[in-house]
Amino acid sequence: MSPNASAPTRRDFLRRSATAVASIPALAAAAPPRMLAAGSERIRVGVIGCGNRGGGAAINCLEADPAVEIVAAADALSDRSAKFGATLAAWAEKNLKPGERRVTVTPETTFIGFDGYRKMLAAVPMDIVIITSSVAFHPIHLEACVRAGKHVFVEKAAAADPVGCRRLIAAGELAKEKKLSVVAGTQRRHDPVYLENRKAVEDGAIGRILSGRVWWCGGNARLEYEKVDGETPGQFMVRNWYQFTELCGDHIIEQHVHNLDVANWFIGRPPQFALGFGGRARRPIGNRYDFFSVDYDYGDDVTVHSMCRQINGCYQRIGEHLVGATGSVWPGGKLNPAGKAAVKPKGGVNPYVQEHVDLIASLRNGRPLSETRGVAEATLTAIMGRLSAYTGQIVRWVDLAENQESPFYNLQLSPTPEDFEKGTVTIPAEGVIPIPGTA
Ligand SMILES: NC(=O)c1ccc[n+]([C@@H]2O[C@H](COP(=O)([O-])OP(=O)(O)OC[C@H]3O[C@@H](n4cnc5c(N)ncnc54)[C@H](O)[C@@H]3O)[C@@H](O)[C@H]2O)c1
User: 379 vs 111, 168, 192, 382, 405, CA distance in Å?
Assistant: First the structure.
């Protein structure tokens, strides 16, 4: 990232914008990515997808650095952006001194609709965009941000299908070319406990990893749709996106991707095969399974068993455990080298804030971060498990990532993200879920 003396400063922009609002789109489109001067300038941040995580991530970013200013927001649904405004106003009321301008989203910098993010990118000068929309939209939202020259924090998972994952990787490669940072919402990679354990494993503390178990067995399954009179099929689906595989990828992708990412990260490669099963026992709405159990084969006799469940009232376990030739590790907890005392690295850092600290540091120190490939590989790993459970077949990594003749390589779920922007969404048939095998 090289300094660009000709890039307009924030102060320049404010001065000009007072008199020349009409020129804002041209100015924003022309501005190259800036390297931030140490601590002195505001870091202007916009948010795409203003739901729970949108509000949470915006606050994490505000907490990460006093120079951060949330300047713009885009959401498909107007009530969500209103709630986002209220969340940030409550944070500002509690945390800012009178006159401190760190939350400056206005009706003019709030954009509603499926194309709102495009309007926001064209109209509002920003340094960083936070993407906290539903999973399936992450590739097109990232692509648009990178093309517009923005640094990005994009939530996990990468996408809902292999086509989307590869599109996210391509956007990440373009970001690298443009010297833009992209940090993904796999916050364990910014947690000092995970980082220290990962380093110890890399340094040979427990020998070669041979096997593992990863879990996201939780509850909180939503049992009813949220409905608003008069909404379009697209608005209904996005309001209830967690219920539809087409938008969330199923919970093995949306949630369990975190634990699968840890397995890939510690082992150092994605798996070669997945063989799994799953089903739906309790969920009355949408088209997702509510449990999966998948065996991942990483080659070289390394295997990881993955379990995830979203059923209320069952035993809950979320985490990872890996066994090496000379010890074992709970990546988010203790390292147990054989014959030596267990060690637990010091924690105490909020990784949700730390990922924004690291993103902002990369803008200041001119060393862009690129986390798209890791999150995309973890997502493809989860998609392999989902496809194996849905089809009853063994699924190979190459068929998602390399073999262009494979139907899995070309799998794109419908409705596609573009259908939402075009308004051509058909809601998937209610209660129809994949059932593998024959009677
Ligand atoms: N890293 C973590 O621990 C963590 C935790 C929770 C959620 N997440 C991720 O954050 C993202 C958002 O989850 P959430 O719980 O906030 O969901 P949410 O439903 O509360 O918020 C999503 C928001 O995005 C908006 N949206 C969706 N598609 C859009 C589009 N095409 N254009 C504009 N707006 C759109 C929705 O209207 C909604 O306001 C997901 O990717 C989810 O997987 C990550």
Answer: 29, 11, 23, 5, 21
Give the model's pLDDT for residue 220. 75
Which residue's C-alpha comes closest to atom 7 of ligand 1? 53
Q: What pLDDT score was predicted for residue 332?
A: 98
- Residue 260 Cα to ligand 1 midpoint, Å, equals 20
Sequence spans of domains, the chain: 10-188, 206-333+370-422
Query: Can you identify the CATH homologous superfamily of domain 10-188?
Result: NAD(P)-binding Rossmann-like Domain (3.40.50.720)
Instruction: Establish whether domains 10-188 and 206-333+370-422 are of one fold.
Output: no
Q: Please tell me the distance from the alpha carbon of residue 236 to that of residue 214, in angstroms, as a whole number.
A: 33
Provide the mean pLDDT of the chain. Answer: 92
**DSSP structural state of residue 36:** P
Mutation choice for ligand 1 from 155, 190, 354, 356, CB with most ligand atoms inside 8 A = 155
- What mean pLDDT is predicted for residues 270-274? 98
* The domain made up of 206-333+370-422 is a member of CATH 3.40.50.11600: no
CA separation for the pair 322, 344 (Å, rounded): 15
Give the Å distance between the CA of 81 and the centre of ligand 1.
12
**Other Cβ atoms closer than 10 A to 380:** 27
For residues 75-93, give the mean pLDDT: 97
